[in-house]
Amino acid sequence: MEEPYKVNDKITAREVRLVGDNVEQGVYPYRAAQQMANEQNLDLVEISPTANPPVCRIIDYSKFKYEQKKKTREMKAKAQKVVIKEIRFGPNTDDHDFEFKLKHAKAFLESGFKIKSYVHFVGRSIVFKERGEILLLKFAQALEDVAKVEQLPKLEGKRMFLILSPKAAAPVKK
After folding, report:
1. Phi, psi for 100 (deg, rounded to 5)
2. CA–CA dist 39, 44 (Å, integer)
3. What span, in angstroms and rounded, lies between the C-alpha atoms of 169 and 114?
4. How confident is the model over 148-165, as a mean pLDDT?
5. Model pTM?
6. Where, residue-wise, is CATH 3.10.20.80 in the chain?
7. What share of the chain in percent tops pLDDT 70?
8. Of 1.25.40.10, 3.30.110.10, 3.50.50.60, 1.10.630.10, which CATH number belongs to 84-166?
9. I need a surface site. Which of 8, 16, 89, 94 has the fewest CB within 10 A?
10. Which CATH superfamily is domain 6-74 in?
11. Can you tell me the distance from the alpha carbon of 6 to that of 115, in angstroms, rounded to the nearest whole number?
12. Nearest to 16 by CA among 1, 37, 40
């Protein structure tokens, strides 16, 4: 694995701009900057290689790498994972099944999940496209108090999709 930063002897620039703690900020020849780092028993790390001259910092590189890993781990932990629950209908779904699936959809939305509901057309039932669209719009209307429509019914192949997301940002449960 290649290091993301150039350290000590890997730095190729003749001059570097030094920044950071306990160092006089400014532009120094590479050798002088490396000597300053050696005197403090620290590493010379190239932070911004695209700057002119490149920006370097005198730090403990292993500690710096550890801090970077820790930051990225925290960022990943804070990132919210979007979970999409699917609810499938047929074009001829009756009222009882509709109510049953509606109840489940409400529970999913209250838990903070997105819902991808779709009508699956099998065989010749594709001729009832309007029924599928009406069913999905009825579904969205029944859930309008807890969900907002993210994508209106759209036919893709043999499936007509509707995507709903929760209105109130509820915490995601696993």
Report:
1. -60, -45
2. 11
3. 11
4. 86
5. 0.50
6. 6-74
7. 94
8. 3.30.110.10
9. 94
10. Translation initiation factor 3 (IF-3), N-terminal domain (3.10.20.80)
11. 46
12. 37
* Token pair for 118: 């779709």
> How is residue 36 annotated by DSSP?
H
Question: What DSSP assignment string belongs to 86-139?
Answer: EEEE-TT--HHHHHHHHHHHHHHHHTT-EEEEEEE--GGGGGGHHHHHHHHHHH
Distance of CA 1 to the CA centre of its chain: 24
Which pairs with CB-CB distance under 8 Å and at least 24 residues apart come from 22-27?
22/58, 23/58, 27/53
Q: What is the CA radius of gyration of the chain?
A: 29
- Residues facing residue 87 across a β-bridge: 117
Query: The tokens 């009508």 sit on which residue?
Result: 119
CATH 3.30.110.10 range(s) for the chain read 84-166
pLDDT category at 70 given cuts 50, 70, 90 is: very high
Tokens of 5: 């930063």
